[in-house]
Amino acid sequence: MPQNVQRAHTSHRSVYNGHLLPCTYPGCRRYFKNQSGLTQHLNSPLTHAHLQTLHNQLPHSNNYVPVDANIENAPPDDVMMDDGFQPQSSPPRSSQSSPNPKRQTGDYHEELDRKPCDENGTFIDPLTPPTPRTSRTSDDWTPYRNCAEFELAEFLFTRNQMPAGQINTLMDLIKVLLLQKGDNDLKPPFADHKDLYQTIDSTPLGDVPWNTFSVSYHGEKPPEDAPFEIDYAPYRDFDANENCEYQNLMSGDGAWKQANIITRDPTTHGSTFVPVILGSNKTTVSVATGQTDYYPLYMSIGNVHNNVCRAHRNAVAVIGFLAMPKTDKEHSASEAFRRFWRQIFHTLLSKILETLRNSMTVPEVAQCADGHYRCVIYGLGPYIADYEEQVLLACVVKDWCGRCYAFPDRLDDPEGGIKIDRNCEHVHALINEFDLKALRNEYGLVGDLVPFTNDFPRADIHELLAPDILHQLIKGTFKDHLVTWVQDFLEMRYGKADAAKILDNIDCHITAVAPCAGLRQFPDGRGFKQWTGDDSKALMKVYLPAIEGYVDPDVVRTFRAFLEFCYIARQDYHTEKSLAELQDALERFHKYRVIFKTLGVRLHLSLPRQHSMSHYLKLICMFGSPNGLCSSITESKHIKAIKEPWRRSSHFAALSQMLITNQRLDKIAASHVDFEKRGMLQGTCLSKKLVQLEHNRAKNVCALADELGEKYLPKHVRYFLHTQIHPEDPRSASEIALSKLPCLEDKISVFHSAGATFYAPSDPSGIGGMKREHIRTTPLWHKLYPRYDCVFVNMDPGLDGMRGLDVARFLCFFSLTFEDKVYPAAVVHWFARIGDEPDEDTGMWKVEPCFNEDASRHISVIHVDMIFCAAHLIPVYGSKPLPKGIKHYHLYDLFNAYYVNKHADHHTFTIAW
Length: 913
What we know:
- By secondary structure, the chain is of the alpha+beta class.
- Strands 15, 19, 20, 21, 22, 23, 24, 25 and 26 form a 9-stranded antiparallel β-sheet that branches. Strands 5, 8, 11, 12, 13 and 14 form a 6-stranded mixed β-sheet that branches. Strands 3-16-17-18 form a 4-stranded antiparallel β-sheet, with no helix packed on it.
- A hairpin with a 3-residue loop joins β17 (770-781) and β18.
- The protein starts with a helix and ends with a helix.
């Protein structure tokens, strides 16, 4: 290529730019490309309103937490640098979202009361400051030379997961670039991948080495053909009427019961109780290269709050890999081999946990998360497992319940047999009384197996089986049962050909659902080749309105009762009221699901995963809300702890390589926490002058009116200003002459999104249960199509649920300045409620878009403080198929009536009733 052509090409190369300027406000974690953007962010009246509001709010308030609508300067392609809101203190609960977390009255356990001690176990004054975890200074990056080295190591090993060879290539390229710049003496941050790994390995934090051990069987041999928000003490919550309330595991009766047993020994008084939560589940890392399976064992502690477990904040760790005995196909199904590997499973669990056995009766001194030393007593807490694993753990026969003696063919039948709960004392008595055959046939017990809990004090496996929302409810009852039954029902009633057409129409309904914050879309309907838990969770949110009109009313009511049971069960805080609602939903589910038997879709309804719902009421009282004990928590660890380390291995003798990878990840995570606590990760290691992000939107009200096609918008802006300047004026703005209203001539700033921060602990949330979601109003979402989201607008905080909220669709966010005061505002198109009650079959409110007499949209300009949170609407489809070509971004403009989707998320479920 000619030299002048080369220069022409290189002269058009883009200059490096990035979001590198950090916001300096405490608690804010946003970055900006240039000083202008940072200055605008700091000067905005909304930017840090939520942070200041949380400091000012009283923690015992029962009023709802107002939304922080932090307007963000986001371009149409959604370039956002928001890492999530980190509140400085735990805010009050919304009275419309969840009960008040601050105890009306409450008790900590009197003897097991988590007193701090010194490192020798001697109790000290509770007001004594905690022992510092490190004496290192705020500029000590050991074992790294500086911040840049640590960030590079974290990026390469944790985030990018770059292979060793590519790390070597990257270091070589960095050296080449340094040489080209004339920096002959400068060297890359790391010599090669070995230097990077050695640096990580030398980290003094997070150093928990992995050990392997072998287990051998010395008993009678079978025939040869066989095979960080933390509670340090149990407590009880009470409402104003002295009724118990349940949230985290330490508020449950199970922790309190163990504490009572522990404190019979006076030497344990003042100790801290730490219940160990276990979970196990086989996973496949590769099918293409041969069926490669691993059997990880996970552990957490019950002191950690539920929202921490669900927020992927390293509250759950993989502590072992269980052996999976194999034999040839001829004997793999034999009873002797099954009994062999079942007992091996329990033996391995006992071996892995044996280091905790002594500390379950004699206190052990440990340094806790708050820096204090405490005398710790361990105990076995709930075990997270799917149904197949629960059968293995409880040593029961398949199709029997691991918690009670109900007969497998009549699990939920009132006449279905013994309904008492299993416990180890009763099981031992039965084993001593009956032979193996009678135990299996009459009580569903495998009498020649010994559960691992027999080796530990205060442990009963039948009591420790945790509720499992993912496998029992979402994957089991919803996906495997109800959705399948609907398809069977349609084929039975209409024949396969017509049923296929109806299923296509249902898929069209699902595909056309409008986007919403946190809501997944289904471009191909519900026809997944392989369902994941996330697929099922997302489908639950939109499935009910999609099938209405094609199935009998009792089928709709069955789904409604089941969904309400799921959403109530998963809420963050349980009271006497919520438990009564849970029982009511269960009874309605049992009542209406009979329709599938009546129609001939099912011969019987005795299914273990559906039967498990009958135990949820008691399990909530024992272990707190099930949202902290779901197998989705352990399964989410499969990716980081198993699958990604396996992909980074050589695939030969991969387990040892995976263990080292996990250990290095632990070290980097521990370093990150340490550096962050010492204030060393505020901002980034670079700071450059960058080009401002531009987006072409209207600069004044008239131009915005033309852009939105709303000719009356200037008048509505003047109405808005009047209500803001004269909030005490009892007259509505429409009663005042237009000439008397303030006139705006200054420029406006238009934005594409707003960030709403509110209290929603039942959904995946941050510290204190605060959730942040973005509401979009952009003419080109992902540069493809418009997106204008709907929201709940807080009209009357004194009324409950939908009676105090209105639904509106946001057309635009903008801010205006009048008399040196900035007003953040939004243009909204209103929806009106249809009727005074929710729909009887679906349990959801109906709304319709509002129009003026001239058929123009009924709009208003409102202050962003009136935003409650995002809302999601689904059309009342009826039984007619959608026209071809209808896309999800058309939906809010086509229909005359919509359901307010109360299943969009768990927060919406609590307010949209």
